[in-house]
Amino acid sequence: MLKPNPLYRLSRLTALLLQVVALQALAQQTDSREDQAQSGKQEKESELLEVITEEIVVIGSRAKPRSVTRSMVPVDVMSSQDFSSQGDTDLSNLLRTLAPSYNVNTQPISDASTIVRPLSLRNLAPDHTLVLVNGKRRHRAAVIHWGGGGPATGAQGPDLSVIPAIALRQVEVLRDGASAQYGSDAIAGVMNFQLKDARQGGTVELRTGAYTAGDGESWSAAGNLGLPWGQFGFLNLSGEFTTSKPTDRSVQRADATALISRGNTNVRHPAQIWGSPDIDDDVKLWANFGNVFGSTQFYGHANYA
Description:
The protein is an alpha+beta fold. The chain has helices at about 5-55, 80-85, 90-100, 180, 255-260, and strands at about 65-70, 75-80, 100-105, 120, 130-135, 135, 170-175, 190-195, 200-210, 220-230, 235-245, 280-295, 295-305. The strands form three sheets. Strands 1-2-7-8-5-6 form a six-stranded mixed sheet. Strands 9-10-11-12-13 form a five-stranded antiparallel sheet, with no helix packed on it.
């Protein structure tokens, strides 16, 4: 009778173990490749999603997303389409609709403040907001606001109403204190108005409207034209003409009523008007230009209002 060879059993067992190890290694290698492929797919999807959603802000937004989320400070960026899609012509009113932190109101009986209305960013004074045009400081208006007891009392801020909305390419609003970088006039934030710099094309806008009370009829005409200047330069021209009739929402004052009751008939009705002023021939002209001469860059902007 033949006895089984222990070496033969050992070799069969070894071969069997090697096959099992090889199958496990192959399975692990296959799983690793699938995991790598799945991970690569997820990374690509994540990158694509990041590209698509990098500008999206949901909390606190009253309109379509426009805030820059990668910035260390909150910044709102508004394009020219955001302004042209509205019915108003005054830039301050347009910004009030688009930027939640920006506010300006109508000044019915406030002397020069009725024309140069005080702006407020983050409920601070007008001269606490730095206003830039093409990255350059905009000068303040020749009006010191006085009266009302609000944050604008005693302040002297810039006049945004002289800028026609049709001249703007985009507006950037930094909604945080930036005095460490820009100075004490940027305590409330910074507003940068970028003018259009197109070398060709143009736009024409016509608007008209009135109040249901039968007053305040207004109409405006605005235009923008881009012209080439040499091989690389540009000359972009903008203009706006506006006319508006006054409004009156006042009631007779109590002291005026008392005078009339005592027989004084020389009292105007109403004695004090509460409404918008009469605006005739409001002209705004802007020019933005730039060119390159060798290694020298020449640029600038000018306006008349």
